[in-house]
Design a protein that fits this description.
- The complex is a heterodimer of chains A (about 300) and B (about 250).
- Chain A is α/β, with parallel strands linked by helices.
- Chain A has 2 domains: about 5-225, P-loop containing nucleotide triphosphate hydrolases (Rossmann fold); about 230-305, Alpha-Beta Plaits.
- Chain A is built from 10 helices and 14 strands.
- In chain A, helix 3 (about 95-105) packs parallel to helix 5.
- Chain A starts with a strand and ends with a helix.
- With about 250 residues, chain B is mostly helical.
- Chain B has one domain.
- Chain B has 10 helices and no strands.
- Classes of the chains: A alpha/beta (about 300), B mainly alpha (about 250).
- The interface of A and B includes residues 54, 92, 104, 109 and 149 of A.
- The structure holds adenosine-5'-triphosphate and magnesium ion.
- Adenosine-5'-triphosphate binds near residues 18, 22, 40 and 45 of chain A.
Chain lengths: ~300, ~250
């Protein structure tokens, strides 16, 4: 197994006790050092997938290896490599921040390291709260305590199950910066999110899951190019009712009650709009403004999930 | 072995114990005092000695066992039920810990607390009746074994329970009758033969008998029988726990 693979998931299947198929034949490879974003609507199976890898949910079938270690037969090595920030805020209300993070490090068998924990708390701006009982913290702070717990044993791989839930915009930005900084130290990061913006902003690769099936995994750039559309918008001086006959055969549509002509093309293709420009001129259409737009991951996502 | 992991769980649990030490000790000490006032002084003065042991002194081992049993079950069951209830169990499940390590951490801490409380009850009792411990080593051994065994049982209850009611139901419905009918306050030799035989199915009989023997060299059953039965009971509990973790019963989805 090449060392570049952080996590390998083969034919993973999960049927819950009530017979619900939450994961259906998932195959996925996460490369070392990448940020992988798992996107999917509510109930798609994101949390189930993460919890199965981490040993919290028992798989019905299939295999998972973490850094080359099987997560069942070699669970010690496999689990030691992973830090998990679960979706739910679950903390020991009466413990202090410092104690709970120290406890997590101990659970993973690591020798005490006050300096590392100090460092982690400072990075997550929790240092001032270190002696506070967790119940006295705000939701966003609790989320960061959970991140500190997950990082307490210096994991190679970090799972963030909806890290931005309940975190304000400013803090979200700073969290993204921290996640990137972590990636720069070589940590592999897998995150789930509803905020496409988040995936678009951070991920190297994106996986889209829906109804327990992994619909696709792709480099973010490739995905955007493959699925993405580019549009050039010509803003008209006067409204027109229909595209003039003289412009037939061009990929044009009307928008905004005939005040805009939209030229659509694949983001990847080497387009030449000179012909379109010439013919617009010949047809006597003189745009007063021109701008372009590219489809976001969100549109791609809605297109994919909506289609299934 | 992930010794640091065990230590982390143990310290976490002991930390919880020490935060609530006042309550943990106050209640067993109070009930011991009450028992001595009622059974030791008020009723005990009218009771005959059993096996040549004055009644007040006779009930001391049983009383300690009663406290240790219920403390073990409630400490251990609460210790594992609470993280299940709050969801913090995720961290234990995703940590590189084996079943044995998790159990040692939780059961070790629960049993430690029970032993401490058992000793405190013993000291309290010493204020009321003259005590004589013939075999201190055996006494301590029985105390520890009982604490461990019933903490294992408590651990199982804590995993099985899916609500706080169930958590209290078993101690109330099963443990309390077993201890009261287990010879804590009488010798089972005083029972008719039929009930004596029935009593032998009660694991508490062996615990109390062995424990009392370590005080007064008198027991309802032989020392060997007591030790063997405690071991058998411990093995059964351990086997059930092994099964729980293997199948993920009520722990993993
Ligand atoms: N313990 C369980 N028993 C039965 N079904 C379950 C259980 N846990 C989850 N499910 C079902 O499995 C499906 C996937 O759940 P999961 O939590 O993995 O979704 P998700 O993608 O994380 O959703 P969200 O974005 O809302 O967090 C859901 O339909 C859910 O109802
Ligand atoms: Mg989820």
């Amino acid at each position: 197994m090449p060392i570049e693979t952080a996590i390998e998931i083969r034919a993973l299947k999960k049927i819950y006790q009530n017979g619900f198929i939450a994961l259906d034949d998932i195959n996925l490879e996460i490369k070392r050092g990448e940020i992988f974003a798992l996107l999917g609507p509510n109930g798609a199976g994101k949390t189930t997938l993460i919890n199965t890898v981490c040993g919290i949910v028992q798989p019905t079938g299939g295999h998972v290896t973490v850094s080359g270690f099987d997560n069942v037969t070699q669970y010690r090595q496999a689990r030691a490599a992973i830090g998990l920030v679960p979706q739910e805020l679950t903390t020991d209300a009466f413990e202090s921040v410092w104690n709970t993070v120290t406890f997590s490090r101990g659970l993973f068998g690591k020798p005490r390291s006050p300096s590392y924990i100090t460092d982690t708390l400072k990075r997550l701006t929790l240092w001032d709260k270190r002696d506070e009982e967790i119940r006295n913290l705000s939701g966003g702070m609790k989320r960061r305590v959970m991140i500190a717990k997950a990082l307490s044993h210096e994991p190679e791989i970090l799972f963030l199950d909806e890290p931005s839930a309940g975190v304000d915009v400013e803090l979200r930005k700073s969290m993204w910066a921290q996640v990137r900084a972590l990636r720069d130290t070589g940590v592999t990061i897998i995150l789930t999110t509803h905020y496409i913006e988040e995936a678009q902003e951070m991920a190297d690769r994106v996986g889209i899951i829906n109804k327990g099936k992994l619909i696709l995994t792709e480099d973010k750039q490739t995905l955007m190019q493959k699925m993405g559309k580019r549009q050039i918008i010509f803003v008209l001086r006067d409204h027109i009712n229909s595209i003039p006959q003289t412009l037939a055969g061009l990929p044009l549509t009307l928008e905004d009650e005939g005040s805009k002509i939209i030229f659509t093309c694949d983001a990847t293709l080497d387009n030449d709009i000179s012909e379109t420009l010439d013919r617009l001129k010949e047809s006597g259409i003189r745009p007063k403004d021109i701008y372009s737009r590219e489809s976001s991951l969100e549109e791609i996502f809605v297109g994919l999930v909506g289609a299934v | 072995m992930n010794f640091r992991g065990i230590e982390a769980i143990y310290n976490f649990e002991m930390g919880r114990t020490f935060r609530t030490l006042g309550q943990s000790i106050a209640s067993p000490v109070l009930s011991t005092v009450l028992y001595f006032i009622v059974f030791g002084s008020a009723i005990g003065s009218r009771m005959e000695a059993i096996d040549d042991v004055p009644y007040g002194a006779f009930i001391v081992p049983g009383l300690i066992m009663l406290t240790v049993l219920s403390q073990s079950v409630s400490n251990a069951s609460f210790g594992i039920y609470f993280p299940r209830f709050t969801g913090t169990i995720y961290e234990i499940l995703s940590a590189p810990l084996s079943v044995v390590e998790v159990v040692i951490g939780y059961v070790g801490a629960a049993a430690t607390k029970s032993v401490i409380i058992g000793v405190i009850v013993l000291i309290t009792a010493a204020f009321f009746v003259p005590l004589r411990v013939a075999h201190p080593f055996w006494m301590l051994l029985f105390l520890i074994m009982t604490s461990v065994t019933f903490s294992l049982l408590g651990f199982i209850i804590g995993i099985w329970a899916d609500g706080f009611e169930k958590l209290q139901l078993i101690p109330l419905l099963v443990i309390t009758p077993l201890t009261f009918l287990g010879g804590s306050f009488y010798s089972i030799n005083l029972l008719p033969p039929f009930w004596q035989t029935i009593s032998l199915a009660n694991p508490v009989v062996y615990l109390v008998s062995g424990f009392r023997w370590s005080f007064y060299e008198r027991g309802d059953v032989s020392l060997t029988t007591s030790v063997v039965m405690i071991c058998v009971f411990t093995l059964i509990c351990s086997a059930i726990i092994g099964w729980i973790f293997k199948t993920g019963y009520r722990l993993k989805k």
